[in-house]
Amino acid sequence: MDPSIIAPLARVLLRYIGGALISAGIAISPSTLADPDLVQILCFLIGGLATAVSEGWYIVARKRGWST
Question: Rounded distance, CA 10 to CA 8, Å?
Answer without folding.
Answer: 5
